[in-house]
Amino acid sequence: MGELKMEDVTLPALFEQARKIHSTATESCADQETLRRGCEALEKCEEMVGKLGLFSANETKEDISTTNLKYILVSFYLAELTEKITQDDRIPILRASQAKLKEFIAFCEAMELAPEEELQASLQGGPNSVVDRRAQKIARFKRQKAAEAKLLEIMERKERRGRSTKASALSTPVEAGEEDLLDDDGEEEREAWLTTISLAICKALDLLEMLKKEDEMLSAVRERQLKEGDNEFSQAVLDERAKKAESWHRGAATRAQFTKPSPPITCATFAQDVLEGRATVSQAHDHKHQPMIFGPASLINSRPTNERERIAAQVFQPGHRLPTMSIEEAGLAEMDIMNKWQERNVKMMEEANSAWYKDNNSGKPRSGEEEEDDEDDDDAVARARAFDDWKDENPRGAGNKKLTPCG
């Protein structure tokens, strides 16, 4: 606040300072001292709003002036900043934030600022089924996105008008009485604050549901601790449990090498292991193929003892792609493909031969379309034969007597 005390600052200046702290805490992480200072400023704003009597229970949003609309957000800002404060016992923080959120939502309902869908859901006690809750969340998310887009549009419109006003002011001098016309953006400011309140309602409803769930979880944990008579775990007990868990994981990683089923080894793979010294000829039935490790473990020439070391040893891998199967496995796979292809060809030939004999069966009844096609073919043949006979009887140029030289 500078050198001025909080009591000496006016309500608009105090609200603007608290709003900047809220935007900083929302966009990035703010320290606890800044959060507490913002909460104190918002509490002072709330007290000053109550003393000045800016809002009345008999009013609606149309009766509230544009200048006072922004002070409706004091409870919402205070709830969000309170929720971000950290302390050992979080349950009082959660309940204080929930109280402010409920106060903000109730005030918006009284001023007819809350959407009708939320009012109906609150009157019915909230959705019971999962489908209704999902539909309500989707509708709320759409309203939130629409409000954010509208705020962005208002901001861009205001910037464009400001640039055009500056350009016109430089080109044309402003006469007396035109200053109010240039700065007359009260309707736009009112629309922006109403949209901000609508966006805050959507966020408040989501935050209230989340805080309720967290409060229930922490209350259940506290009740269980009170029943067990063990409010705080000693550091010795925690260390002992950590050691037991670590030893169990180490033993499980060691056992995993023998419990995991190893892939079947082929003759070519076994021969490669023998040539490279990873197996002996006498281990034909007992040898298990271990993939080559190119990481630190191979440099140290020691086998990994747990899963973590094995994964760490595989960090450094060769630059080329390793083969996924041996030459013998590839040959077997290709042989299977050829056998399946031959079987399919034999089956197709058998089906084709059987279909050929069935199609040539003379006793098979003919359909009506085939009979019509045969009749059309007979008529075409008859017309072609009649045209050939006519051409034989009337040779080319037989009727042109005037064209003959000796006619």
From TrEMBL:
Entry's Gene Ontology BP terms: regulation of dephosphorylation; regulation of signal transduction; TOR signaling
Ranges of Basic and acidic residues composition bias in the record: 380-395
Composition-biased stretches (Acidic residues): 176-185, 369-379
GO cellular component: cytosol
GO molecular function: protein phosphatase 2A binding
Pfam families listed in its UniProt record: TAP42 (PF04177)
Superkingdom, taxonomy of origin: Eukaryota
Region spans: Disordered: 162-185, 352-407
Family of the protein in this entry: Belongs to the IGBP1/TAP42 family.
Name of the protein described by the UniProt record: PP2A regulatory subunit TAP46
Annotated organism of origin: Linum tenue
